[in-house]
Amino acid sequence: MTKTNEKEINVAEIWKKRPPKNVRSKSPQRTFRRWGKSASLKAIDLKSLKVEERTQEEDMSLLKFLAINALDLSAPASDVLLKSRSSGWFQLSGHPDSLAPAGPGTVWKKRANPNDETERVVYEEISKDPHLANIIPKYYREVDYQGEKFIELQDLLHGFQDPYVIDIKMGTRTFLESEVKNTKARADLYQKMIAIDPNAPTEEEHHQKAVTKLRYMQFREQQSSTCNLGFRIEAMKCRGSPPVTDLKTVKSTEEVQHTLELFLNGRDDVRQRLIKRINEIRSKVDQSEFFKTREVVGSSMFIIYDDYRIGVWLIDFAKTNKLPDGLTVDHRSVWKQGNHEEGLLFGMDKLISIIDNLDTHHKSLPKSVPTIKVKS
């Protein structure tokens, strides 16, 4: 993993750069990074895994999709790791080393908790449903390699050339109810809160110098568009620019609109196709008996396009849990402790509405795009 350096830039500036030429990797050998507690990562020869050698077209690709994961202290949302063929691995967002390329067109995703089969089960069940199968990456199998468990999934960047990529975490709630059952006020969370906003705690919380986990989690979500729009832009990568890794300040509807306009880069054809595809996903989720009995926390809408193609999928189901018997959700109602609503469809409604009203012919860069940190 290459060391990253943070620097302050303006989002609007990164779209001005011209795309670099594709550079072929100096070494065609593919390596698979093994995960462990040690800081040093051992590279394993993919030939020992009997993986087919990739095509020249893939080798020329600038980006390699790996996965997606969220802001700290929220549910895993998406480890979007991208690979530059002319350099090493670098992280767009989330936990490092959660996935790696496997065979042509597939990736291996490491199970976060070796004893938790939630995501594997969800992918298997959705994949078997002909009505839902195409709204997620293709699921192939579970893999047990050197004592660690993985699931093999479709590589969503396969076949795209120097694409635009965005990860949008869906829902008005990005934490499980089980994570906030403890009502004990914690001093460490109070310190984290005042580090972000010294005026956020109430007078009583200031006096106690402590806040509950629920209070802190809701405070964190209020820093982004999660609460009011039912989604937040987690990370993105645009042609000819470094990956944007911190979009927590993109909160208002206007800021979200400006960011999406920059992402679409004047492509009204892409905007229209995105609306059609997200509408399709929304309709299938809304009509699904499977989703009526599932709490879907921390999932993301993964969107990608290049000069010729677009792709949109719902990804990341590590915190998608079956509801207690007799309980259903509509994914739009306001969350109250115990009702398991998480706003998945509410967020899709808002996202479709905002994309539908975007001005893709807007030429001047918006003044209100915030300055954010990127890693390069």
From TrEMBL:
Q: What class of enzyme is it?
A: transferase
Any idea which GO molecular function terms this record carries?
A: kinase activity
EC number(s) of the enzyme?
A: 2.7.-.-
Which keywords, in A-to-Z order, does the entry hold? Kinase, Transferase
Q: Does the keyword tRNA processing apply?
A: no
Report the protein name in the record.
Kinase
The record's listing under PANTHER family reads:
INOSITOL POLYPHOSPHATE KINASE, KINASE
